[in-house]
Write a structure and sequence with these properties.
2 domains; 9 helices; six-stranded antiparallel sheet; disordered N terminus
Length: 319
């Protein structure tokens, strides 16, 4: 069916429905806005209450769409027949999905003529699921990338349209990799869509070997374990920086997020969690020198500023 449709659609503007929620999705959305294609509607998750005043805040994609004067729709799910019929009436040629966060049922997947194209932040089949950027850094991967894929009812199991790999900079955190991948998706999205619609790119099945799952980051994943190797501790810090942040507890039971750190080579004559000069903390092997932190309810600060107001004694054991 795709090849038959392609000849009539390749030189025309596509009617696109875009579905996305976080900052990651904005650059690909901008690419679509600046293309020859027409965005008929944007779907994003509903506004949520957050901040000190628990004010309802729109998602980054929703706010961007408002500025571009593109209609935005925020269903809680797609269990309503009315919501599904609404998308049918939009008559999209293709639906582009980028970190939307809601499951699309078969009834929605079957609506667009060219299917639903998902922008996934890993090289599938590695790191299917919710947190591919964080999990790739936590695992010490040397490479990741963007996969454009056709969606099916499985969890990131659909056919691959095209992959764009990049190296992971071992000295950078998740925010840096997040921005790199968002830009990579943006710079390749239009050419990939056009090639796919024209029949120049043939989707192919994912490999059966090498499947891993990027589970959603839980609070328990964020606590630093000083009994781990220093390299593993550092990977966790970078994978969770700046959000949600890897953390430890002081002896006053205060939670402190670690935003930046480096490995400090020592003779390792102290226990895991034991503090030596400055804020150098012992691990299973070597030690971590903490460079910047964010105490509970406060801003990010350099370690020197933090220690001036919150002294930690040499020999203290961090939990």
């Amino acid at each position: 069916m795709i090849s038959d449709l392609a000849s009539s659609e390749v030189n025309s503007s596509l009617n696109i429905v875009f579905m996305g929620t976080p900052d990651f999705s904005i650059k690909p959305l901008e690419a679509l806005v600046n293309s020859d294609h027409h965005i008929v509607a944007i779907f994003s998750q509903p506004p949520r209450r957050s901040g000190r005043g628990m004010k309802k805040n729109k998602t980054p994609v929703h706010s961007f769409a408002d500025k571009e004067q593109i209609p935005v729709y925020t269903p809680k799910n797609f269990k309503s027949v009315d919501d599904i019929n609404f998308i049918k009436n939009l008559n999209p040629d293709i639906i582009i999905v980028s970190a939307y966060g809601l499951l699309l049922p078969r009834e929605v997947l079957d609506i667009p003529k060219f299917g639903c194209l998902n922008i996934h932040a890993s090289i599938l089949p590695r790191w299917r699921g919710a947190a591919p950027i964080q999990r790739s850094i936590m695992s010490g991967d040397k490479e990741t990338g963007i996969t454009f894929m056709l969606m099916d009812e499985g969890l990131d199991t659909g056919k691959i349209i095209k992959k764009f790999p990049i190296k992971i900079n071992k000295d950078k955190n998740a925010k840096f990799l997040h921005d790199e991948l968002s830009s990579l998706a943006s710079s390749n999205l239009i050419e990939t869509i056009d090639g796919y619609i024209a029949g120049k790119i043939n989707p192919f099945n994912q490999e059966e070997e090498g499947v891993t799952y990027a589970e959603k980051i839980q609070k328990t994943d964020c606590r630093l374990d000083w009994k781990s190797n220093a390299e593993e501790v550092l990977l966790l810090v970078r994978a969770l920086s700046p959000y949600p942040g890897a953390w430890f507890l002081t002896k006053k039971n205060k939670r402190v997020k670690v935003l930046d750190a480096k490995i400090s080579i020592t003779d390792n004559n102290f226990k895991p969690g034991e503090v030596t000069g400055g804020l150098i903390v012992g691990c299973k092997n070597n030690a971590i020198e903490i460079l910047s932190v964010q105490p509970e309810g406060k801003k990010i600060m350099d370690i020197e500023d933090y220690l001036r107001g919150n002294p930690i004694s040499v020999g203290e054991i961090l939990e």
